[in-house]
Amino acid sequence: MLCFLSDAYRDHNPQYEYFRGEKVPCFESVERLDNIVAALQARGHECVLPQADASSVIAKIHDPAYVSFITHAWQEWVALDEKNHELQPFPSVWPTRTLRDDIVPDNFIAKLGLYSMDNGTPLAAGTWRAAKSGADAAVSAANYLLAGHSSVFSASRPPGHHAGRDFMGGYCFLNNAALAAQALLDQGMKKVVVLDIDYHHGNGTQSLFYDRDDVLFISIHGDPKTEYPFYLGHADETGEGAGQGYNVNFPLPIGTTFAQWLSTLEKASEQIRDFQADALVISLGLDTFEDDPISKFTIKSDDYFQVGQQLASLNLPTAFIMEGGYATEALGTNVVNVLEGFEQ
Ligand code: SP5
Ligand code: ZN
User: Fold this and answer.
1) What ipTM, to 2 d.p.?
2) What is the distance in A from the centroid of ligand 2 to the CA of 297?
3) pTM of this structure
């Protein structure tokens, strides 16, 4: 399967994050995509540079003030203190209930809180460059489908599905899957499905399309009662206004097996068929894998061929957009197993 890939993913190389108050190495690492690229090349899949400039689609999906903030955030951070070159900024205050969310403070950390949903999304010197290149890859993938091809993979990194209109979170800055869907609609498609199979609910994507009937958003994920992102992704979230009925969540319990997961994908597939879309965008997370260090499903490497096969049975032009998956060693194998299962 053709893959859009820019080397700029290497520029997003934060050194640490916090887990329960402890500084730990980043789960979302450069090595993740290194491993995917190695597996793609070893198994004969061609990688090409993104051809699109996602800027105009980014301006539709994301808030311009947020985009401007993340574009310059690192420079603003290091300008505060020479020592900051060796550190990463994390938010420590948020405009939650009873506070105002219409104030853009002058204080950098307060702005970071305004534009973040968590303190688990490390920002580094090259984050914007990497995120923009991942968005360019996603829009290139959309354009490739519009040119008449049946499938494509966007090796976007950092991931995107937790990022909303004006916030980052969950290792995500720009919502690559939403950008791909919007690019398809902007260039003539009438209806697009975004199917999110990352272990974590795609809260950013859901929120971006919640009131729209031209995008059916379906997500299969760890039950947010116990799993990140906690505050969205529950079964009773079905869309609003024109979007009523066009948002479907399948929360599954810790320990979910491949058999259970696949039967859920079959249910999702019925809804996708009923919607009669022009194209399918897959938020492809591989953190459903049994050995994923931060997730709790039990899917095995070989099972991913069948995931690809089931997605191919929907018979739609399909863009795979890379999201999570933190078992770095197996990640390349697992990604390429999905893509080759689809192509069989
Ligand atoms: C794109 C994506 O997959 N983002 C995931 C963001 C998850 N952030 C929360 C990480 C919580 C880590 N929990 C670790 C448990 C390890 N024992
Ligand atoms: Zn995930």
Assistant:
1) 0.96
2) 12
3) 0.99
